[in-house]
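FORM 12-B: Structure-to-Sequence Request
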C-alpha cells in the first residue's frame, strides 16, 4: 500500500512540474499564478504547497531537472570523449547549452539568475550555486580524462583550466539569455572559438583536431 502511495505522490509531483514548466514557458514566469499551475496539473492548490512554498521553489526544481539531465549527458561524453581536446570540450559544453532551452525559456533563466543573485543564501540561491559547482566539477573531470588519454598536456592544471572554461561558458550564457535575438548556434560558435584558443597551448601535438 505504501508503494502505491509513493507512486501516486511521484505522479502528482511530475504533473506539477510539467504544468509549471509549460505555463512558465507559454505565459511567462511573472504572470503565472500558483492556482493556475494547480488547475493545469489537476491537483488541489494545497497539494502544490506540500511540495513547494512558492513559484521560486518550483523554478529551481525545473532548473535542477535541467542540470541533472545535462550532467548525465556529460557523463557519457567523459566516458567516451571525441578524439581531440577541442572536440571533447565542444561536445560537453555544447550539450550544456543545447539542452538549456528544453525546460526553460530565456525569460525563465533570467528569473532564476535574478533570484540566485539577489537571494544567494536562500534555499533557491544555494541550490542554484550547487548546480553550477556540479557543472564546473564535471568540466574539470573531462579535462582530467583528456590528460589520461594523452589528448591534453599534463602541464595543464586541469582544475583551473576547467574552471576557466566553465566560467567563460557561464558568462556567455548570461549574454545569450539577456539577448532575445541571439541563437544557440551563435552561442556555440562564440564558445567554440574562445575555448579552442584557450586549449591550443595545452593540446598534445599530433592529436587529432
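FORM 12-B RESPONSE
SEQUENCE OUT:
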Amino acid at each position: 500500500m505504501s508503494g502505491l502511495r509513493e507512486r501516486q505522490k511521484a505522479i502528482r509531483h511530475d504533473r506539477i512540474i510539467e504544468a509549471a514548466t509549460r505555463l512558465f514557458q507559454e505565459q511567462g514566469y511573472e504572470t503565472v499564478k500558483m492556482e493556475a499551475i494547480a488547475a493545469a496539473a489537476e491537483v488541489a492548490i494545497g497539494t502544490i504547497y506540500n511540495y513547494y512554498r512558492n513559484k521560486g521553489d518550483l523554478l529551481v526544481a525545473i532548473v535542477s531537472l535541467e542540470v541533472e539531465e545535462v550532467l548525465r549527458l556529460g557523463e557519457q561524453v567523459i566516458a567516451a570523449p571525441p578524439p581531440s581536446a577541442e572536440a571533447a570540450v565542444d561536445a560537453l559544453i555544447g550539450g550544456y547549452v543545447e539542452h538549456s532551452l528544453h525546460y526553460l525559456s530565456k525569460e525563465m533563466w533570467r528569473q532564476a539568475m535574478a533570484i540566485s543573485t539577489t537571494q544567494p543564501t536562500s534555499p533557491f540561491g544555494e541550490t542554484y550555486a550547487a548546480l553550477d559547482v556540479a557543472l564546473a566539477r564535471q568540466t574539470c573531470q573531462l579535462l582530467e580524462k583528456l590528460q589520461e588519454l594523452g589528448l591534453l598536456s599534463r602541464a595543464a592544471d586541469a582544475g583551473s583550466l576547467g574552471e576557466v572554461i566553465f566560467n567563460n561558458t557561464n558568462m556567455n550564457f548570461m549574454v545569450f539569455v539577456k539577448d532575445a535575438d541571439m541563437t544557440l548556434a551563435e552561442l556555440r560558435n562564440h564558445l567554440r572559438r574562445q575555448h579552442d584558443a584557450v586549449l591550443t597551448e595545452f593540446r598534445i601535438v599530433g592529436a587529432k583536431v
